[in-house]
Structures are given as C-alpha cells and as structure tokens.
Design brief:
Elements lengths: L14 H7 L3 H12 L4 E3 L6 E6 L6 E3 L5 E2 L14 H13 L6 H8 L3 H14 L10 E8 L16 E8 L4 E5 L5 H11 L5 E5 L15 E5 L6 E2 L2 E2 L1 H18 L4 H16 L7 H6 L10 H8 L3
Parallel strand pairs: 5-8, 8-9
Antiparallel strand pairs: 1-2, 2-3, 3-4, 5-6, 6-7, 10-11
Helix pairs in contact: 3-5, 4-5, 7-8
Length: 311
C-alpha cells in the first residue's frame, strides 16, 4: 500500500481552506467583486469615467462614490437573480472540482440542504463555466465513443433509439477535447478536427475508415493507425490515452449519474474535460473554476448600457 500523500501541496484545497477563504456571504461577494472589478474600479455608466465603487449595505451592489449609481458584480454571471446563498454556490463548485468522477445532484442536495431541482440547476450552471474552446498540438490520439444503454435496459418508449456518438481528441500527456456529434460520418467529424487541430498534426487512431479521411482534409495531417483486432500498440501508434479518458467518463456517468440525455451530454463532457485538462496544473482546481464565475452567461442591464454607449 502506498501510504504517501500523492496530491501535490499546490493542488490541495481542503474544507478548512474553504472555510478560511469564504467564511461569510460578504466574503464571497467581495471576492467576486475583486475578480470582476479589480480594486473596485470600473466605468460608471452615468458619470462616463472610471471611478471607485463602494459596497452598499444590505444589498449585493456597489455604488459610485460620485453619483451613487449602482453596479452589481453578480449580474450576468451564473449567480444572476439567484435566491440561493453565494456561499452555497461556491461550496457546490468546490465539490465539483474536488472529485475525479463527478458528484450527483442528490449528493449536493444532501450536503447543502437545497432542493433537488435547485441542486440540478446549480450544477448545470457551473458546467457552463467548464466549457472552453481550445486548440490542440500534436501528437494527438483520436477516437469515437457512444453513449446510451442497450435496449434491454431501457423503458419501452425509449427502445430503438440510436446511441449518441462523441468524438475525443487528446494530446499525449496533455489536454483533451470531447464533442458530441450528430453521427460518426465524415461530414460530422472533419469540421471538429479542423477546428481543434493545428495544420500538420500527427494523429494516431484505430483503423476507422471515417477517421482516415483526415489525410485528405488539405491540412497536411499525418495519420498512423493501429489494428485493434491484432494488437493495441504498434510502435508509436496506439489510442490508450483517449481510451483511458473515455473509460473515466463512462465509469463516472454510469456510477454517479446513471444516465445522461443526449441534450445534456455535451455539458457533462465539458465537466470531465475541464478536470482532465487541469490535472497537472499546480493550483487548486477549485480556484481555477471559481475565477471563471465572472464570465457573462446571460444579458445584464450594465452590459446592455455599455453596448448602447459603444464601450
């Protein structure tokens, strides 16, 4: 048995760390304000100049020191008009960032005391922060995966439906991109490959006739394949890395979530990809996720006003 601590100290983020950093609602709000508007300075849409804003007592807003116009750091973010406490939101993010295979909405319900509907929505919103568009560099491995149970395990009204395909592309010892695709055809796969990969990338895959089409994309990609009916490794050609990622995703979905509908599958793939891509980053994963809460995921009055002013 390996009794040594395997998690690097830089990646640790314990419950004690969370309690120390976010002890109150005000601490959570101040943190979001600092991330979104460093030092509390931002453009006042009324004054037309950048000014310091100060906290308004009893509200989640900050007021301009000159004219009193309010700004709301939570507007347009995943916390927009949420009646759930900000500290609960951050706690849910900590749980989702501290697991390897996922955490269920029922577990969130039990730990935070919110309703199941609220827990499910909070997790859905947090997964929006985990979505990202990245480009990969070679060498990479590429393979498809299919999600959906067998007909014998489905209710009668769900039987006969095709499984949902997804395409995975992973750098060796690096990052991964997983995309839900309509089907495993050339017309569905090649646009994703063109979007994700740089030209002249070395690609390893199995002997799929569809994946072989990347040779003639006009991007000068190089392709090496392995025949899985004979062996799983042929020199440098193998798909063990992407197979390992798909195994992690499938074991997580099957063991934690049990089933995921096609319309939500992409958000779950984004969640697993986000954690996988940061497994070697020497910072707590929760900190990396929490800092993305300043992303604008819905329209806000301030952003609309800035757009009208052309700013």
């Amino acid at each position: 048995m390996n009794r040594r601590q395997t998690v690097p100290p830089q990646q640790k983020y314990t419950v004690k760390d969370f309690e120390r950093e976010f002890p109150t609602e005000d601490a959570c709000l101040e943190t979001v304000m600092h991330w979104r508007f460093p030092e509390g300075k931002t453009l006042c849409v009324t004054c037309g100049v950048e000014r310091k804003h100060y906290r308004v007592s009893g509200r989640t807003s900050y007021a301009c020191r000159a004219c009193g116009n309010h700004i709301y750091p939570l507007a347009g973010t995943i916390f927009h008009k949420s009646s759930t406490s900000l500290r609960t939101w951050f706690y849910v993010m900590r749980l989702m960032a501290s697991t390897r295979i996922g955490v269920s909405a029922k577990q969130i319900q039990r730990e935070t005391g919110v309703t199941y509907k609220t827990a499910w929505r909070m997790m859905k919103q947090v997964r929006m922060l985990m979505s990202e568009d990245i480009k990969l560099s070679g060498p990479v491995e590429m393979d498809e995966a299919y999600f959906g149970g067998s007909d014998s395990n489905k209710h009668s009204h769900l039987r006969g439906r095709a499984k949902t395909p997804a395409l995975g592309i992973v750098e060796r010892k690096g990052r991964v991109v997983a995309r839900v695709i309509p089907d495993a055809s050339k017309a569905s796969i090649l646009p994703v490959v063109g979007e994700v990969l740089q030209p002249r990338t070395m690609i390893y895959s199995d002997e799929s006739a569809t994946l072989a089409q990347v040779r003639w994309m006009g991007k000068s990609h190089k392709l090496a394949t392995v025949n899985h009916s004979k062996s799983y490794v042929d020199g440098y050609a193998h798909t063990n890395t992407i197979d390992g990622f798909w195994s992690l995703v499938k074991r997580g979905i099957g063991g934690v979530y049990y089933q995921v509908g096609p319309e939500y599958l992409q958000s779950y793939l984004d969640e697993y990809s986000f954690r996988y891509n940061r497994r070697k980053v020497m910072r707590p994963m929760f900190s990396q996720l929490a800092e993305r809460t300043t992303m604008q995921v819905c329209p806000s009055a301030r952003e609309s006003k800035l757009a009208q002013l052309g700013l």
